[in-house]
Design goal:
Two copies of one chain form a homodimer. Helix content of chain A is 44%, strand content 14%. The first copy, chain A, is of the alpha/beta class and 337 residues long. Chain A has three domains: 44 residues, 434 Repressor (Amino-terminal Domain), CATH 1.10.260; 139 residues, Rossmann fold (3-Layer(aba) Sandwich), CATH 3.40.50.2300; 131 residues, Rossmann fold, CATH 3.40.50.2300. Chain A starts with a helix and ends in a 5-residue tail after the last strand. Chains A and B meet through helix 4, helix 5, strand 2, helix 6 and helix 10 of A and helix 4, helix 5, strand 2, helix 6 and helix 10 of B. The structure holds a DNA duplex (16 and 16 nucleotides).
Chain lengths: 337, 337
DNA sequence: CTGAAAGCGCTAACAC
DNA sequence: GTGTTAGCGCTTTCAG
């Protein structure tokens, strides 16, 4: 490996001068600088980032911790984060918790050993306040803003559900059911509340037998629309689903029963997965700005880093109040409503 | 930050001893070791991985370079790589080239500055021999084995296409068309050749007007099956598609025209994306072992690292012949054939 | 078994 | 403008 000392020797200067030249510091003779830069290029010099980081007391890695990168939602976020980070000379490491709080805890510790510049994390469902008390580096959490002292970013599920429900109402559906995800999921709860509120604001009845919880998958959607439409009670004429997979299950059932969509029955999904936009599916849904989520997260990390450095430099004790950001989802009107 | 010196002071030993104890070296008094480990725990000591790496002259990062992590294929690979790497105390950084060779080149350089332990790369389509000549760290390339001196891993597209074509033939289809992806893609070319070979082996005619190339997307599949079935020539009764998106476009067209699948027409896809397994799609296809691809890549990196270290240690000049691995795809028989 | 000390490659403070 | 030097936190000889 070739180091600044090698260059120094060849250039006949001290290696400190090489360092200065390569880092474009002021107070270096332009000629010397030029010569050194040229030499470095010729010799194929690559700065040893590890050594630089040791001096700086911080690496140029941002750790992204998610339950599972292969989940399209997180994959999209991962991409926007890596792109944003790369623009500022940071590198992003990916870590999967596999939805396991123990693993999450381990990774959190491990990443700090790596002297990462910052951590962006989507906590497992079992996150509780205090989990991040031991984190000593810039941190951004994808979660609902709470009174914690960390930076939070989350999608505004209330607005999303309101958008969806109102759209269904505007289209003239009178009996709108809710096929939700896991009952314990905060996202699900917020959407349910917003759905109920939207109905009430239009003086429509909220029926408990039209509200259900369950797995976020296709089969679950199929089974639930089936039981909704095959019992004796009043039947809904539209349904708002907790995610697109559920909606796909609903569509499949309706298709099998020859119930025409959107004429006889309206369907709204949530998430806008790739397949929802396909002509053969063409599902109306709510899109969540994942791209913005990633970019914003990197922004906040960089902001914290900057703040930290300024504080160290000026040796003060200023307090940076945490950012709490809610991202607005967007209505995608397609064929099913 | 708390360092080994802090621990040493508190334990009344030298910091070298602390290092030894924490690294579980032999030749440390068991009592001392125990005391130090306990102390480290109490004081919340976290090893500074950067400093460790500086000494080791290598980081514990493996760089994964792909065109786009948000592509499900790469997302799956990313997951299996991170999981395999984490088991060996390595961390994986993700880098997107955005299919841009310039960006790829830059990242390749940048990652070596980071002193990464190894690089796993899926090259952009413009890869040519020699691209990796400047790489001085363990490297694994997802590409077709060639005479380069690097480790290669690739899916066996020939076998995959053979599997698909033979299955169509076995099911009794007589006129099998090929709707391929980009004509320049090596994967596409290999599959085309295998398709032709399989037909010939069954003494079936290879018709050039049943072979087409184009975008790997749904619309492209739709348009191409349309022109195949709406012209005057002999019409095929089955089609092998270059990927599942193309097949989805085909299915949509057949559905619109009320052509029953698999009775009147057979369809095979390639890739086994998530949606192919959905009951409403139920596409027969070829699954590629992405999980194995990731695990194997990490294996090879670790193997190279080990080899390198042994060579340094013994100061010899042994040559390690590169691994060239072809992974076997798997036939998924579902409803469309 | 343990301590002293060199050194990994680099930055930055200080001297000239 | 440039050289000298300390030091980032750690591992690893080398003495003892």
């Amino acid at each position: 490996m070739i180091t600044i000392k090698d260059i120094a020797k060849k250039a006949g200067v001290s290696y400190a001068t090489v360092s200065r030249a390569l880092n474009d510091k002021s107070d270096v003779n332009p000629k010397t600088k030029k010569k050194i830069i040229k030499l470095a290029q010729e010799m194929g010099y690559r700065p040893n980032v590890i050594a630089q980081n040791l001096v700086k007391q911080r690496s140029n890695n941002i750790a992204l911790i998610v339950p599972d990168v292969s989940n399209p939602f997180f994959a999209d976020i991962a991409r926007s984060i890596t792109e944003a980070a790369n623009e500022s000379e940071y590198v992003v490491t990916i870590n999967n918790t596999g939805w396991d709080p123990k693993q999450e805890h381990y990774i959190l510790d491990h990443m700090q050993s790596q002297q990462v510049a910052g951590i962006i994390i989507k906590p497992t469902v079992f996150y509780e306040p205090g989990t991040f008390d031991s984190v000593r580096v810039p941190l951004v959490v994808f979660w609902h803003p709470n009174k914690d002292k960390t930076d939070f970013i989350e999608m505004d599920h209330s607005i999303g559900a309101e958008l969806a429900t109102n759209h269904l109402i505007e289209r003239g559906y009178k009996n709108i059911a809710y096929i939700g995800g896991a009952g314990t999921s905060p996202a699900n709860q917020l959407r349910l509340m917003a759905y109920q509120k939207a109905l009430q604001e239009h003086e429509m009845e909220v029926r408990q037998d039209w509200i259900s919880y369950g797995g976020f998958n296709l089969k679950s959607g199929y089974n639930r629309i089936k039981s909704l439409l095959e019992n004796d009670k009043v039947k809904p004429d539209a349904v708002f689903c907790g995610n697109d997979y559920l909606a796909l299950g609903v569509l499949q059932y309706l298709h099998e029963k020859n119930i025409s969509v959107p004429e006889e029955f309206g369907v709204m999904g949530y998430d806008d997965i790739y397949f929802s936009s396909l002509p053969m599916i063409n599902l109306s849904t709510i899109a969540q700005p994942r791209d913005k989520m990633g970019k914003k997260a990197v922004d906040l990390i960089l902001d914290q880093i900057e703040f930290q450095e300024k504080r160290n430099l000026e040796n003060n004790n200023n307090y940076r109040s945490p950012s709490r950001i809610l991202l607005k989802p967007e209505l995608k009107i397609r064929g099913t409503t």
